[in-house]
Amino acid sequence: MTVYDLDSATLATTYDTLSDSQFKRGSELIERLHIDQSDVVLDVGAGTGRLGLWVLKNKLGATGSKLIGIDPLEERIKLAERKNTFPNGKFLVGSAEDLSFLEDRTVDVAYLSAVFHWVPNREKALSEILRVLKPGGKIGITTGAKELANETVIRKTLDRVLAGPKYRDRVNPNDYVSSKQGTTATELIKLLSDAGFELDEVAVRRNSTYHESGTLLVDFLESSTFGNFLVHVPEELRPSARAEYIQALDAIGQGKGISSVGFGISAVARRSFDLGLPACNQRQGCGQGEELVSLAGLRTRDSPGAWRLQATGRNPAGILGLISEA
Ligand SMILES: C[S@@+](CC[C@H](N)C(=O)[O-])C[C@H]1O[C@@H](n2cnc3c(N)ncnc32)[C@H](O)[C@@H]1O
Known about the structure:
It is a single chain. 33% of the residues lie in helices and 26% in strands. A hairpin with a 5-residue loop joins strand 9 and strand 10. It has 10 helices and 10 strands. It has a single domain, classed as Rossmann fold (3-Layer(aba) Sandwich). The chain is globular and about 60 Å long. Strands 3-2-1-4-5-7-6 form a 7-stranded mixed sheet, sandwiched between helices. Strands 8-9-10 form a 3-stranded antiparallel sheet, with no helix packed on it. The protein is α/β, with parallel strands linked by helices. The model is unreliable at 275-286 and 297-301 (pLDDT under 50). S-adenosylmethionine (SAM) is lined by residues 19, 22, 26, 44-47, 50-51, 71-73, 76, 95-97, 113-115, 118-119, 224.
């Protein structure tokens, strides 16, 4: 059974209702990506489409460029499509590792909001995203900070319950799905750099979340892990573990709800302007105030054996342009 088989229409609807904290962090990431109306946007792991539809409404508009959202979970995509009224928005079943439905260099901004820790083959996903991004195109990621995953009320309370006599010989608390799946900030930097991205920013951010009750917090955890929340507990012990966990959370909240502080990574990187061709070693073709980004030798089609220089640069406003051909 893969992690995806446990999802259901009910979990999808619950996630759509209870995912305010992830939506908030996702929308903060979108602000850092500076999306404008003409950007083609790819929402990788779009889930129930909350964030993608917000981007369509607030950044692209119905007359702007298109947004494509993909997710392996069919029920979540069905819900996203049911809510979608934008002609330029489309939600499809798919995974980050296979973007073969997109041509090379066709996307301006790709983002993964609360998704990267779930992706089984991260190298493949990043190489696919790099391939479909235009030169200068951006990738944005929010994901849990694995190095700090155990430092939350949510995790510490769960560990306390699972240290009880009924569970301790049968459960390894470190098999908790959300802690196992993440990357550390250092791993994420390395993965992005190895994939060929230029890093703009990586930050570990303090996230504070609030849940009205233990039951609603557990409903959120089950729906955001698409049914995998207690898979490390033997099936026959799950109902009691769930009930004891809710009780322990409510005891902490004392009727006022549960606040939990956690840590997440937020990263923005881009595909470089490099044309991916052998760079020449002379600086040529820069206009005044412009900065050379890459200089490449191209074999011409009409005169085989001849070469032409092509320079790509950035002006002070950050705009990419072909500066000269020689
Ligand atoms: C916690 S939800 C986040 C959904 C949405 N991005 C949001 O911000 O609300 C994680 C999502 O990642 C998706 N996911 C898991 N593995 C994936 C993969 N290999 N490629 C793309 N998405 C994946 C899940 O199906 C799930 O919908």
